[in-house]
Each structure stands twice: as C-alpha cells, then as structure tokens.
Design goal:
CATH topology of chain B: Rossmann fold
Number of strands of chain B: 10
Number of helices of chain A: 12
Strand order of the largest sheet of chain B: 6-7-8-3-9-10
CATH architecture of chain B: 3-Layer(aba) Sandwich
Strand content of chain A: 5-15%
Order of helices and strands of chain B: EEEHEEHEHHHEHEHEEHHH
Strand order of the largest sheet of chain A: 1-2-3-4
Oligomer: heterodimer
Amino acid sequence: MSETPQLREDPESPGRWVAGGDWTLPHAARLEALAGDAGVRDARAVDARSIERLDASGAMLLWRLARNAGIDDDGRLQLRDDHAPLFAAVQGVCHNPPRRDAKDYGVRAMLARVGWTVEDNAREIIALVAFGGAALLTALKIGWNPRRWRITATVAHMETVGLDAVPLVLLLSFLVGAVVAFLGSEVLAAFGAEIFVVELIGISFLREFGVLLTAVLLAGRTASAFTAQIGAMQSGEEIDAIRTLGLDPMELLVLPRVVALVLMLPLLTFLAMMAGIAGGMAVGATMLGISPEMFVARLHETVEARHFFVGMAKAPVFALIIALIGCLEGMQVQGTAQSVGERTTSSVVQTISLVILVDAFAALWFMEMGW
Amino acid sequence: MRPGEAPLAPRECDFSRPAIEVRGLSNVFGAQVVHADLDLTVQRGEIVGVVGGSGSGKSVLMRAILGLRRPQAGSVRVFGIDALSDREADRLAIERQTGVLFQGGALFSSLTVLENIMLPMKEHHGLPDDLVHALAWMKMRLAGLPGNAVDKLPSQLSGGMKKRAGLARALALDPPLLFLDEPTAGLDPIGAAAFDDLILKLQRALGLTVFLITHDLDTLYAICDRVAVLADRRVVACAPIREVERFPHPWVQDYFHGPRGRAARREA
C-alpha cells in the first residue's frame, strides 16, 4: 500500500520540519492541506530526504510549502539526490499560474450573449443573401453552356432528396389529413355541417399544409444531409482541393443540390396535397358518412383551382431556402467534428424557422391580394 | 472517481518488475497475421524506440499493451499486472500508470488545452478545482507550452503545440510509463529536435519509462536507450542502436544503411 504523506516538526530542533511518505498525485488534496498549515509557514528548514516517492504534482506542492516558508531557493530545503532534478524542473515552471476567472452568469453576461447572438444572426442573413447571389451568378454563367451542367450529380440528388422521400411525405401527409378531418368534423358536427370538412381539407391542404409539411420534412431530412455532406468535405479540405484544381465548388456541389431540390419539392408538394386529401377522404368515408364520390363532387364544386396555385407557387421558394441554407452552413464548417454537428443543427433550425416565417408572410400577402 | 463515490482501490503495482513484459503475443486480423509469438521487455527507466516498416504492427503492439485491443494469444504485463485481465481493479491500476500521446494528439476538441489536462485529474482523484487548475498549469508549462495556450482550443493550435498539449495530458496523472506514437511525425526538423529534447528532459526529471514508436532516425540516435525492430511478425532485435545497426537482418540493413540512415548516423 502506498504510504500516506507526513509532515511533522522535529521535536529536537524546533523550526525544522521533516517530510516523509509518498508525495504523489493521489495524495494531492492532503498535501495541499499540509503545505498550507500555519505552523509550516514559520519553518526555518525542511528536510524532505525521507520522502519515499515524489512525482511532479508532489514536487509542486513541496515547492509551494517551501515558498510559503520563504526557503525555496536558499538550500534550506533538503532533497534526496534522485529527487533534485524533478524538483528543479517543476520549480522552473509553476510560477505565476493565471488567475481562474469564474464564469459570469450575471445580467451583464446575459446582455453580452444577446448582443453576440444578434450580431451572429445579422451576419448569417448577410452571408445567406450573398451566397444566394453567388449561386445565381454561377447559374447564369454556366446557363449558356449546357456542357457544364452537372446532369449526373443533379439526377443523383433528385433521387435522394425527391424519390427516396416519397413514402415518408405520403404517409405523414395522409395522417395529418386524417387528423385534421377528424378534429374539424368534431367542431362542425355541432352545427350539423360535417360536409364542410371537404372544404376544410381541400383548402387547407392545397393552400398551406401540402407545401408546408413537405418543406418542413425536407428541411429536417435534406438540409441536414446537405450540411453534413459539404461540412465533412470542408473539414477534410476537399473543398480547398476542388478550388486548387481550378474547379468551382459552387458549380460542382451547390448548384446540383439547389436545382435538384427546386425541381423535386413542387412534385413532392403535389403528392403531399393528394395524400392529405386522401386522408380526409378516408376519415369521411369511414366515420362521417361522406362517400368518396360525394367528397370529390363537392371538392369540384366548392374548392377553386387558385388555392392549388397559391400552394404550388411557394414550393420553389421553400426549396431555394432549404437548399441554400443547407449548403451555406456546410461551407461554414470549421475543421472539427463538433463544428459539423453545430452547423447541422443550425441549418435545420434556420430552414424550418425561415420556411414558416416566409409562409406566414405569404399567407398575408395572398389574402390581401385576394388570390 | 466522482466526489462521494467509494474509491475502487486499484491493484498495487510492483515497481521492481519490468515496466512492460510481452510474451508470446499473437495478433491476427482475418487472414493477416500481424504478430506471431512476439516477445518484448522494457525495463524501468529506459527509453525504448520501436521501429518497423509500415504495416509491421507498431501501433497494434501499443494498443495490445494498453488493453485497447485483445490479442489472439500471449500475455502482457505492465509493472507485474496482467494487462489483459478483465478485472476492474487491474484495468484501473494500468490506466493510472500509463500515459499515451496519440499520433494526432487526440485532444478533446470541445475543451481548451488546460481543460484537456484537468479532465483526467478531476475524474480520477476528485481533487478541488483550484488545486487541479494549478497542477494542470504546471503540467502544461512542463510540456513546454507558452502561457497564452491556456484558453486555446485544439483547433487553434499548430501541429507542434498539439503534440505538446497531448504530452501534457498524457502526463496529467503522473504516470511512470509513457507511450508515444510517432511524436515527431509531421513536425519540422527544428520542432522535432526540440520535441526530442523535451522527451529526454522529462524522462530524466520525472524518471519515466518511455515506449516510443517512431520512423524518425534522428530521434532513435538522439534519445533512445534501446531500439526494438519489428519485422517478420516479431521483434527481431532489441538492443542499443549501435548494436542494432550491425544486425544482419535485411530490413535492418536497408533502414540504417539507406541514404537517410547514413545521414542520421553521421550527425550522431
């Protein structure tokens, strides 16, 4: 068993202290207490020759003890010969440790954080606008030259962001359609107007839910994937390699993703609209006594096509938001694994918030325009 | 250990035994035999350089000694304790006696340099924060880092600084046995020479035993007491470098008597 460290005053010669035992890291807490002992501060000499084992941590605490007594550099601290080099090495480096700043949790720190966050967000917005402009410029530049369109990459992305997302979009839209129909019928039944469920489902899905559900799903599914893909390339210096080879990452990586999403999101939106209406129809047929024929006939009579166009018009805008933020955040990754994680989270949060924000303003605008 | 938790007593090490004893070690990956019946002994207080071609299993040997990889056969003892044991107390004892500097530094990227060094001390010994802070500062300076590195994140450090920070963290628990995986790889010659000096200085001052994997001939000549050559799936030679360079194995001859080997020997 390792020896507990000891420090006691020599009974035969007062003022002379004798240290013994193991002065090692596991005993550091006890050693610190010994070194701070009031009696030792008046020591005239310390004999450390009977210390059994000494490691760097023990040497530092021994130095502290000697310094407290003011005898650290005048030979009144006696060491075993084999401990002397260690003590000398440690003595040379433990002066002036920096002050430990306690973390500030007060009002000032809160205000500072709010300030930083606002500034960060402002920077993000400027970066996003600039990035959108750069993407547009690249698109215009290569637009004249079809040989530089990355058809293969674009089609591959169309498959992963579009086709692979079809089952998920269909299932979730169907379920939301069913839930909306069910809840709506509960309220409408009080007025004996259950048949209005058809308008409720038709208008809400064509105008809002179809495109919004799809955009939120793709924000979670695709924006995060874009950020992680490009972010991993960024941290592996692949983006820099692309640049040094005289290629343009915007053309190679960003445009195919943006184009693929702008093409696929409207198609998925259409599927989501149909699935939502099918969900409503299913609830109508099974629980409300509205047969599918009746449902479709009423849909024809009462729901105008403009609702469909309003919904569809938003799809490419949302696609741009999702693809651009996803790629931009990926480009902003810096080196570490933690940075990839932070950027991916940030890209999902930003896309979902921005999609809902834009949707809210669009709803107001379309209503004012009477469309 | 967290404060208040009953400490699990680690097994006592027997410091009269050699630091590392490897006997009959076999490591096999699928059809590829990396080590077969490998023996190696590292005495206390010496610096042993381990050399070998790419794929000769230097890192695998280190991982087997550290218990990061279970070998197919053989025994490994660190200060007399069975390193392949499943007993928690044995594992804990070995973890506290060994420090490792991984090739890329393997610093925790979300912690600052000082927090990286403080982490093992806090976790293992549950010491008060102020004391851990002062000890970590001392370790950091001992590894030759400048004072302003305290608050830096690993991503803000140069390659040489990362190695020094990794070394400081390896020394956090004051281990008597240090493993260094290619400590000078990726450093410029001046930085590499300075790092060699640092290792030697620390080894002398702290009385360390060092297991050092390297490709750097200058390191071998400058600081290693003995050199172990890994070839043909085992240690073909383990002796002071002047004896090893005369050893008649073809790989050894190519290595020490190629153009780079000649240059390093002339300087030394």
